[in-house]
């Protein structure tokens, strides 16, 4: 598990290797990740958008931007957590992801970024 705190918002990420399969005659490696967003600040915040950089050992990095996470824009009061699961496909058994969440502070009405720490994606059979 990797963790990072930005402006009182703690991001924790756990990863899993889900398996391999063929898509368009090419092998793909499926990875899952579970993110927990923990509001350790004194203000209520809302997650508005996400920005991901996905690194595949055999491919060019991919950038993914979008509103919310898995169709939600969670509001977190002080002390509250939001956990969600998602996944990605790589063309190699190794990669990594990193990024940030765009959030808004309800007290100050200011937008701010919360860093998502870099986490590795590794197929269990390929690890030494």
UniProtKB/TrEMBL annotation:
Coiled coil: none annotated. Pfam families: DUF525. Residues 3-128 form the ApaG domain. It comes from the Bacteria. GO terms for biological process: error-free translesion synthesis. PANTHER family: F-BOX ONLY PROTEIN 3 (PTHR14289), POLYMERASE DELTA-INTERACTING PROTEIN 2 (PTHR14289:SF16). This is Co2+/Mg2+ efflux protein ApaG. It comes from Dokdonia sinensis. The gene is apaG.
